[in-house]
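Support reply, case 0932

Customer input (verbatim):
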Amino acid sequence: MHGSIGLIIAATFLGPTTSASAPSNPVHAPVPGTVAQDADPWPGRPNPPLYRSNPRGYTVGLSVDFGTERFLMAGGAIAMNVATVDTTVVADLRGLEASVRINGTPVPPGLQIEGDPASGQQRVTLTLPKGESTAAISTRVTWPAIAFAVAVDEAAASRVTWPREWPESVRPYLAASEIIQSDDAVFKTFIEKTTDGRLRRTPIYVAAKELVRSTILQFRNVEGGSLYREGDGRIVGFQLQGAVATTAATQVTPADMVCACVAVLRAAGIPARPVIGIHSGDGDSGDSKRPKGRRTLCCWAEFHLPGAGWVPFDPFEMRGQGLRQADIARPWRWFGTIKNMNRRVGIAYDFAPFNHGRVLGYPAGWVYRLESSEPIVGFGLPITSIQMIGRGTVRP
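Our regenerated output:
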């Protein structure tokens, strides 16, 4: 094992075990064409026909900086919805580190971590103090995480039937939001046209695959990036139009495509969600449209396969792969089976968590809540910086 990241994460979720009480943890049979995985001691391991392998360790996080002029420090808090357990990632917030600086001087971060890590996500809050005239606020949060490659047995996945009822844990991902307006009539009409009324008679994996393909094929002009940046290249956040506006836009971003695909799946009754994450810039650049050697914020999507877990897909990467003629019975690149998912770490399941998906400026996986009615003078756009250190291959 490289360092202690795997030990920390396993101990956090699983607790200590002895030889007499250690749970059985068989190795999943590999999907043909994938690398066989070692015994997986980490939580969130999916069930067949969904498999994960090749874990890689990271230290990841975000830094958020405010202010270019002097302004009144009104207090408030920065909140992040941190992904802790998923098919593609496991994070351990016991190893979380946080800091707050006001005008360059460290102050107590007022850190709170809420929620059960086994639920899949936790809330991390940094409370900012009230003060007088302030020139700069700098915050930073980092934590250890493990990312996995993912594979799907397509034949077995295509036999999974629709559930009578979705588990309570995934029902929130059926609901509409201000960014992902899945209850709009435009998506109902699109689904009826795409499936010809055969949606519930089609296996759920096949239905999701066809709906995602049909959604991607609607877009002609897609920008190469989703991020809005300051003039010096610093990240402000994601450029989003919302799912409904995206369907009529002449130019869209990869993030817009994610919103549209998630909206279509939710409208079809399939739990789906965006994933906001960090791409390491490492690995086989020939299999990705993202430039090699450049760490950046990115986003993709997931839908829930009953009895198995969350299936990742990246609409932007799927473009230009001959989708129109692709055999739906065969694997598609960047849908389900993604060998380079271990080069990305998901950090949140909403662009603006805790704001119910509202677009406030340029969201970047966190929100800022003011706790004062006092006016703020000279409050500049916040700058989001990614934190990512690769720890290499992790072994149980």
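We compared this against your earlier run and they match. Two observations from our side: The helical segments are 5-14, 154-157, 185-195, 204-216, 243-248, 254-267, 315-318. Residues 254-267 form the longest helix (14 residues). Please reopen the case if you see a mismatch on your end.
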